């Protein structure tokens, strides 16, 4: 057949089939009868004689997927192309559930102590400063000579006493703020011990007492095993045999270890012992001043800079001196300064730190027979202004100074001129340029070797010697002025 006429022939055949399909009897007319079953070509499911399959089979055609591609299972693996660039970061997902807490690690090393902040202004007068009661004074320890008092960690007074009869060191623990009753314990009775005791509260909250063992010429320390000090461990931080029967003084440094000042009789030096433990099981001793005969009647306190400040007597020149420690261990002094170079001054010194952060030193001016207080001009006490706070004839021996809750100094001392009485002076300002004075106990021979502390009730408490009755007495002040039945209008 001519190929050019083939499309025309096919078109005519298609038209004929369409016409016959539209006539119900069209096919019947061609076949001569009714057709009940549609005819189906046997090769209708094949393409070019090849059948199809939805799954890969040999000799079968496989249809493309909806994505227009053959399934990956029938595509042979090709060579991996290069890694494409990293896409941009997607949005942050929701936080996951918090995990269980891990075990706590070991504690780190303690950091260095920071510098002390500036001292605030003195506070105002509180209710306790205006007590409408009298001074309470009573006997505390029979046979007692020298004593030292501090407010214990339980808020009750703790007193170290040298009992001159048996020559023992005793601890007296008061039952209340006024010491209406007390428990007395002998801590050391080996030889002549306990002379010139000084007591403070250690960093562990227990009492610690420095004192002289006269028999062996050594410095000893008693560390209480409980707050009431019914027992103590004894140590000897200086075994040189040179420690003389002169005033010892103890405080606690910023490292938590006791710091003790005392007199080396053999070498006539001022010595400081820095304990290596809370119990003072061992110590390092340093001669802070060795110029002449120096170091008697010493007293030590921790200054506003965290370093020790020691007041003492220069017996060679009969002057008042202070030494400012160069470090916490007081291994040397930055200065040994003469504060008062008057005629025969500096006996029975006592040092504290005032509300302005500067040292206050109470002492006896033997030349004028007066009580004086020196106010340091700076933390290192390189200079001071001295004031006479009681000028009655022959007053001021055995001074002991502290700072009351009103921020002003308060001093206990012996009045030798008017009946051998115990007196207390209350400074009128931070520098103690003047003071009000009052007799606290009389008329017997009382008031020597006094020790003053501020109790847990905020009021002055004084222990002192009663020569007449051969014992130690205690006086509790009803207000910061230590004046009975004080009234303000």
What do these coordinates show?
5% of the residues lie in helices and 43% in strands. It has 489 residues and is mostly beta strands.
- The separation of the N and C termini measures 147 Å
The average pLDDT is: 86
Based on DSSP secondary structure assignment, what is the total number of beta strands?
30
CATH architecture: 6 Propeller
Strand order of the largest sheet: 3-30-29-28
What's the number of structural domains? 1
Low-confidence stretches: 18-35, 119-125
3D shape:
elongated
* Radius of gyration of CA atoms, rounded to a whole number: 50 Å
Given helix and strand content, the structural type is mainly beta
Under CATH, the topology can be stated as Neuraminidase
Number of helices: 2
Helical percent range? Answer: under 10%
For the largest beta-sheet, the strand count, sense and barrel status come to:
4 strands, antiparallel
Quickly describe the structure:
5% of the residues lie in helices and 43% in strands. With 489 residues, it is mainly beta.
Secondary structure: elements and pairs:
Elements (H helix, E strand, L loop, with lengths): L5 H17 L3 H6 L14 E2 L2 E2 L84 E7 L1 E8 L5 E7 L4 E7 L7 E7 L4 E9 L5 E7 L4 E7 L7 E7 L10 E4 L5 E7 L4 E7 L7 E7 L4 E9 L5 E7 L4 E7 L7 E8 L4 E9 L5 E7 L4 E7 L7 E7 L4 E9 L5 E7 L5 E7 L7 E7 L4 E9 L5 E7 L4 E6 L13
